[in-house]
Specification:
By secondary structure, the chain is mainly beta. The protein has a single domain, classed as TolB, C-terminal domain (Neuraminidase). It has strands at residues 23-28, 35-39, 43-48, 53-59, 65-70, 76-81, 86-90, 96-100, 112-116, 121-125. Strands 1-2-3-4 form a four-stranded antiparallel β-sheet, with no helix packed on it. The mean pLDDT is 79. InterPro entries: WD40/YVTN_repeat-like_dom_sf, WD40_repeat_dom_sf, WD40_rpt, WD_repeat_MORG1. It is found in: Cytoplasm. Pfam families: WD40. WD repeats lie at residues 16-57, 58-99. Belongs to the WD repeat MORG1 family.
């Protein structure tokens, strides 16, 4: 098994249950202490994966959420999905700070979406 010099776990540490349908992406924060999952149930979920604890659910997208990224300071996140929007969220309050609308089609996880700390912006590009 190729692992790029990092020894990968050989058994499950935890199973995170909570989504009502397929999970489309899971992203860890920079230090690996938390992760965010998103899926067909139109929710984002914040987890402590080491303890198997669900911390918060974020809801606002009208269709499936295809991808999520967190800022390096862990304070904000960006999500994109089938509703042709990118949402910029406050992690602690769970509120949407801004919606980026106007895309002609579903926002793809294969495009680059990332959040910039301190700038109040999300970046989207191919």
């Amino acid at each position: 098994m190729a692992s790029g010099g990092v020894e990968l776990p050989r058994k499950e540490a935890n199973v995170l249950k909570g989504h009502e349908g397929p999970v489309l992406a899971v992203r860890f924060n920079g230090d690996g202490n938390y992760c965010l999952s998103c899926g067909k149930d139109r929710t984002l979920r914040l987890w402590n994966p080491h303890r198997g604890i669900h911390i918060k659910t974020y809801k606002s997208h009208g269709r499936e959420i295809r991808d999520v990224h967190v800022t390096s300071d862990n304070a904000k996140l960006c999500s994109c999905g089938g509703d042709r929007q990118i949402f910029y969220w406050d992690v602690s309050t769970g509120r949407v700070i801004r919606k980026f609308r106007g895309h002609d089609s579903e926002v793809s996880p294969h495009a680059a979406v990332y959040a910039s700390p301190g700038t109040g912006s999300c970046h989207f590009g191919h």
